[in-house]
User: Fold these one by one.
Assistant:
Number 1:
Amino acid sequence: MSVQIIINGLALGAVYALIATGFSIIFNVLKFSNFSHGALMTLSAFIGYFVSVGTGLSLFPVILISMLAGGLIDLAGEFVAFRKLTIRNTSSIYYFVSSITLGTLFEGIVTIWVGPNFYNYPRFFKSMVVKFGSLIVSTSDLIMFITSFAILMILMFFIQKTRLGRALRAVSYDRDTASLMGINVYATIQMAFFISGCLAGLAGVFLGINYTLYPQLGNLVVKGFIASVIGGLGSIFGAVVGAILLGLMETLLINFIGSGYAPVFSFLIMLVFLLVRPRGIAGSNVQEKA
Amino acid sequence: MLSVKNLSASYGHIEALKDVSIEAEKGQIVSIIGSNGAGKTTLLRCISGLIKPTSGTIEFLGEPIPNKPHKVVKKGIIHVPEGRRTFSGLTVKDNLLIGGYLFKGKELEDSLQRNYKLFPILNERKSQFAGTLSGGEQQMLAIARGLMSKPKLMLLDEPSLGLAPIIVNQIFDLIKRIRDTGITILLVEQNARKALSICDKAYVLENGRITLKGTGCELLNSDKVKKAYLGS
C-alpha cells in the first residue's frame, strides 16, 4: 500500500516538475513568472485530445503532437506578447501583465472551441495496471513518471552540456554580455519559449489523462509555481526537487487527511518556505564580486 | 583596419559622442584616455553594436560593421566589457566555452586548451564558479573569454579598474603579449600613464569629443595631458 502511494506521488511530482521546469526556464531568461503557461497547457492538451479522437493515434504520437503544438504556440505568444518588451528592455511588471493577458486569450480560445464541458482522453493502455510481484502500479502513473523523468534528464543534459544550453544560461545571466560573445539573444529567447511550450504540452496531456480535460485545467499551473518557490525560483534543478517533494506530500496528505484539505497544506508549506527560506531549497549563493 | 568616422551617439537628448573619428592599424595598441563620462565606453559600445550611433560610419577591414552585436563578433571584433561581467554563477570552463560560442567540436576544444596554456590559473580553477575568483583573476577570465572567439580586434574597457597595482602591471603585460600575437587592441583606460606607455597611438576623449591625438610618447610629454591626466 505505502509503496503504491509513493509511486503515485512520484508520478504526480514528475508532472509538476514538467510544469515547474517550463516555468523556470522563462523565469530565468526574462525574470518574470509566465502566467500564460497554464492556459497553454490546456490549449495544447486539447489539440492532442482532438488529434487522438480524430485519428486514433496512440499515446506517444499524441504526446509528440501536443508538445510540438505547445512549442509553436509559445513561439507565437513570445512574438505577440513579449518581443517588444524585450527589445525595449522594460521592467518585469509589463511582462507580468502581458502574460496574464496572453493566458486569458488562450483560455478564451479553448472555452469558445470546446465549451465548458469535461473530456476524457481515449484509453491508451490495454491494461490499467502493471503488476510487479505483489505490487500493483497504474500504467498511466508508470508511463507518466518514466516519460517525464526521461524528458527532464534530456533537458538537463541539453542545458548543462551543449552549446545552445550554455547560450541559454549565458542569456539568463547577462543578456548584453551574452550578445557580446556572439550569441543571438533573441533566437535564444525563442528557443527558451519553444522548450517551455513543449514542456507545457507534455504536462497538459499528462494532467488530462490523470484528471479530466476541461478549459480550466491550466489552473494546476499553480502547483508548478509552488514547486518552483519551494525549490528556488529560477533554479531548474531546485524546481524538479521541489516538484517531486510536492507531489509526494500531496499524495500522502490526500491519503491521510483527504483531498479536501490537502491543497491547503500545499499553500501552507509554500508560505512557510517564503517566510523561512525565501531562496528555496536550491537557492543560489554565488555572489557578484566587485 | 578599424576606421571610425564622424561618429555621434546619444542617450535620449544627451549627446555622448560628437563627431568622433579614430583609426587603428593591424597589430597596434590604440589607447583612448579620458575622465569619467567622457564617452569612452559609449564609443566601444557603438563599435560592438550594443548602441546605434545617430550618425557617422564604422568600418572594419574595409566593410561597414553589421548592426547586431552577435554579428559583429562573427566579423572578428570582441568587446571585453567594463567591470569584467563574467557569468558569476557559471564555472570558469563554461565561461570560456561561452566565449567560444562561434566554434564547435575540436576547434572549440583547441581554443580552450590554448587559453588554459596562456592562463594556467584558469586551468587550475576551471570548475570553480567565476564569481569566486579574485578581481584580477576575473579580469583574466574576461580577457581569456574574449580570446576564445579568436578575434582580430579586441576592445578592452577599463581592464585595470579596481585592481591592485601589481595585478595592473600583469594585465598590461598580458595586453602587450596579446598584441604580439597579431591581435589589434583598442584600449579604453582611466589609468592614463599606463595606457599611454604601452600604446602605439592614443586619443584623448573629453565630453564626447576627441581633443588630442598622437603617439603614446607625444601625449605622455604633452603639457595638457600631464596637467589633466597624469597629475604632474
Note: Chain A has one domain: 2-220.
Number 2:
Amino acid sequence: MSHDKTKKQAELIREISGVNPYKCMKCGKCSASCPSFNEMDIKPHQFVSYVLNDDLEALVNSKSLWKCLSCFACIERCPRDVKPGKLVDAARQLVVRERGGDFLSADEIPEKLDPELPQQLLVSAFRRYRR
Amino acid sequence: MKYSYFPGCTLKTTGASLDRSARLAALALGFELEEIENWQCCGGVYPLGSDEIATKLSSVRALAEAKAKDQDLVTLCSACHHVIKRVNDDMKNVDDIRTRANNYMKLDEAYAGETNVLHFLEVLRDRVGFDNLKAKVTNPLKGRKIGAYYGCLLLRPGKIMAFDDPENPTIIEDFIRAIGATPVVYPYRNECCGGYISLNEKDMAKSMCKRIKDSAEGFGAEMLITACPLCMYNLNKTEGGISVRYFTELLCEALGITEEGKAL
C-alpha cells in the first residue's frame, strides 16, 4: 500500500468512526469484554494502536473485521469513550466500500438458509458484510 | 391509549408469535398498537459510520410518522428498537446527520428527534406499571423459574438506549415477578448470542449460546425469555438445554389469553 493511500485511509477511519484514538490508555477492558476475542487476530485494544500508527494494511486484511458481533460490550465498557467497535466498523467500511470488497455475496445465501432463519439475520449480515 | 407501532421484518414471518401475543396482551392491558403504514425494514443493525445517512432513513420515516400522529413509537424486536432508538438520538443530537437526513426527506416540518421510542417492556414498566400488570394477571405462573435473556441490543450503549442499567438490568426480572413467576439471575444474561455471525459460523454462535443456556440452567432456570427473534433463533439452534420463549407469550399465558380456546 502506498504511503499516500495509507495516510488517506487512516484519515478516513478517523472520519468514519468519529473516534479519537489518542484518548486510549491501553487498559485492555475492550479486549477483556469482547466475546470474539479468541477468534480475532488483531484484538480490539490493538485496533487503536494500528490506527495511531497508520498501519492500515494489516487492519483491512484482518479477519477480526468479520468476527466482530456488534454487541457493543467494548463501547459500553471503555472508560475513555474511545469506542473500539466503531474503529472495527470503520475499517470494515473501508473494505466493503471498495469495488470487489464485499465479504458476502447474494449467491452464497440459498445454501445458508433454513426454514427458521429470521430475516433479521440476513439483513444484519448484508449490512455489515457488504455494500 | 394508542401507540404507533413498528413491527419490523421478522415479526411478520418467523417471529409472528412475538407480534401476535404482544398485540393481544396490549388490548387486554388497555392499549393498542397501531402499525405504522408502509414501514420499511430498519436494516437489523445500526449503521455505525458517522457518514451513513441513507441507511438511517427508514427509521426516520417511521419516527416522523409517529410524530405526525402525536404518538409514541413502540417496538418489540430488540434489533428494531436498537436501530430506531439510536437513529432518533442522532436526529436529536447530531447536527450533521439531522441536516442531511432532513435535506433528503423534505418533510413539511423537519424532524429533530421529537418522538419517544419505547420498547414494549418499557410500556409495561413505565406506562402500565408492573403493579398494575400484576393486578391484571389471572393465571399467575407460580413456581416457574425463568431466566431473563437480555442480550446486547436492548442494553448497550447504555447512555443512548437508556433502557436499564446495562451491567445489572432488572426490568425483565421485575416483569417475571409481575406475572407471578420466579426470576433466576445468572451471569450470562447480557452476553451476546453471536448475532449475525450464525449466518457464516454456526459453531461459534452455538458455543456462545451453549454457555448462556448452561449458565442459566446451572443457576436453576427452567426456561429463558427473550425479546429478540435472532437471539431466539441462535438459542434454539443450539441443541439441548432449557427452552426459550418470547416474553409476550408468557405475558398472554399469565393474562389468561387464549386463541380459539387454546393457549398461545
Note: Residues 3-98 of chain A form a domain with the Fumarate Reductase Iron-sulfur Protein; Chain B, domain 2 fold (CATH 1.10.1060.10).
